[in-house]
């Protein structure tokens, strides 16, 4: 079974699981949940098409157990023949978002060239990896970048983001700081920002670190990417159309 077939089968399992396996899944959940630690809640359990394992999903984390919940398996399920990482494929699918639902009006917008290749990125002004990624983006062409100012590293992050947002030229102020270390001028006291809205959005999307990159198909990449990685990702998205 190849990767696409496996993911498709899991999707079909989700659609029919309520009717076909509710009792068994409930039994496994009842047995396994107390073993995961106090306060941990299992979001779903489904039977996988490999090895008789059951997938235990906690948020976007994937674990595995047997039908009697006697054993708990932590790690990746990899096809020994093809090398396909089924666990990664599943977590990638779970972490997808609906790109069109993002409040793009609350993000900085940078367009280079034809702007056809679109990403959204959550960045903190005090994030070193974000600054590295910003340098990568500066060398890219034919791209549109929506930047959400996601302040999670310090109180000073909120101040810097407000100063950037309230600047006459937000993109210039952001690049001046991220690329050149030139701090933006202090924001007027009456200037309002979407900081709290973006913080809530990031928490809802389980953005736990910066940068977090989202592509037009809804897939995400946590952490900075280099130019080669970005080009390969865009190429794969184009070939999938």
From TrEMBL:
Pfam families in the record: DsbC_N, Thioredoxin_2
Signal peptide range: 1-20
Residue span(s) of domain Thioredoxin-like fold: 111-232
InterPro entries the record matches: DiS-bond_Isoase_DsbC/G, DiS-bond_isomerase_DsbC/G_N, DiS-bond_isomerase_DsbC/G_N_sf, Thiol:disulfide_interchange, Thioredoxin-like_fold, Thioredoxin-like_sf, Thioredoxin_CS
Domain Disulphide bond isomerase DsbC/G N-terminal, first and last residues per copy: 20-87
PROSITE patterns: THIOREDOXIN_1 (PS00194)
Main location: periplasm
Localisation per UniProt entry: Periplasm
Role according to the record: Required for disulfide bond formation in some periplasmic proteins. Acts by transferring its disulfide bond to other proteins and is reduced in the process.
Protein family membership: Belongs to the thioredoxin family. DsbC subfamily.
The protein, known as: Thiol:disulfide interchange protein
Species, as recorded: Undibacterium rivi
